[in-house]
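## retry 2 of 3
previous attempt timed out at serialization; input unchanged, resubmitting
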Amino acid sequence: MLNHILVATDFSENAHNALRYAVQMAVDLKAKLTLVHVTEPEAFLAQTPGDLMDQIWKEVEAEVMKEMEHALQRIREELPDLDMPEVRKEMRSGLVADAILMAADDLQADLIVAGSHGYAGMKDLFFGNHTASLVSKSERPVLVVPGSYSYRGIEKIAYAIDFHSMDDLDLQTLVELKEEMGATLEIVHVDVEEGKAAPEEVENFTKLVKRLFGQENIHYEFLEGESPVAALIAYMERSDADMLAMKHRHRNFLGMILGRSVSKDLLRVASIPILVFES
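## retry succeeded, writing output
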């Protein structure tokens, strides 16, 4: 279950929105929350004497902690009726994605939350490099929150798969999440092959879902077309789902998507948060 949520922040507006989402989600799940900022060492520090470097890092850390507290105070003011949870604050140094993943490992976080783009105010730096790296490297689920999306609870979760990518453990996590939130779960099959899905595949798929999880509050929908990206974008636009979950596996349709630059387009234009499970 998602008992510990780690939020990556760069203090941009998109990151603040992701933090606000994570805070509200943590309250609903009664989960612990950790806020992490990564400072990439400047090249000149390598030539800085040890004592002076220690002093510089202390000053940087103090400033980062001040920024974090300011961000949390903003949320208290924006959500005055929310019972604000205690938030652990961490500053790490190094390559952004790697340092976030190391923090998640050290703290045994169950979920990493990040804004969809906007690192240090530069539209594509965090998303294009660091978030994509988080998604591709993380052994933990990564939740990517669109900058304009406001938390409204989680009443419906969609899980996008193909017939060959269904993972019992990921589905179990989603079932636990939907039960904790009182949500429904919709299994969305995306056919990456041309033509319609074979009837026996549909039947076998349906039987497997019923056998594993029954039918209560679990639904399924079949999307077909030449482009899984277009099918998913269209689904997000017309669906009332609050979250779209995916499996990042190089051999299935999501691997095909995330292995190309079009993955950036999919997550950037997503109208709802996307939860990515690593293989």
